[in-house]
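Hey L., structure's done. Input below.
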Amino acid sequence: MEEQDFRHIDLHTHSICSDGSMTPRELVRHAKASGLSAVAVSDHDTADGVKDALDEGEKIGIEVIPAIELSAKSATETHILGYFIDPDSKILADAVDEIRQVRSERIGETCLMLREHGIDVKIEEVRAAAKGGILCRAHIARIMTDKGYSSSPKEAFAEWLNVGCPCYSESQALTDTEAIRLIRDAEGDAYLAHLHLTKKPSAELDAFVARLASEGLCGIEGFYTDYTPEMETEFRGLAAKYKLKLSGGTDFHGTFKPHIRIGAGTGNLKIPYSVLADMKKR
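Output:
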């Protein structure tokens, strides 16, 4: 009988380079201390933390997957995860510089809309909170909470910052097609993240995944913090239908989303190492 593999992984996490609360090195150490065998630092629209994460992983003995999470233009929310990217890719670095500018404009729009609703958040405060990293909505949510406009970052997102809320800005730098192409140009594999956040009905989601698969999508996020059993069945069925691989992660952000634990999400999410082993068969 084959020995069961009890190793677990988390391939969707964020550091202070985007909207997490830990440095890349701290995040990798936290993953190791939490019993994980592998972790991906997948910051929003930047690979700035990848080298530190890789170096720390080698030092303490945990596998680190170089990754990034790109935001794409969408009426709802579409994110494309890139795994096994080359962090030294000049193509990626040049694109990220442009993306950073669009992100700054987006955050400025959000701050303006918030002030129009009587919520005093300035972009200078967001820059200070980001500490030189990518500007993100999570920084705004933390500022709103600290100032007493919301009881928690989660509430700030739910009432003001999520898709469909009064202060959500749709500005993005890339289309989904461009995001996939950029990841492939950086020698990575593209995976569609948290499919439920696209808010597409089943038939529309099916067509969406089919199109992305034809454009070079390698897989979808089949394990995720907020998935219900029904979602898992549907999404993994799409992966099988279009011959796509599965990835999985918690979307860990540290204290910015304290209800999410690395490797476990909001409950007992356990992503087997076999998922990563299959992803490596490129």
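The chain has a mean pLDDT of 94. The first strand starts at residue 8 and ends at 13.

-- N.
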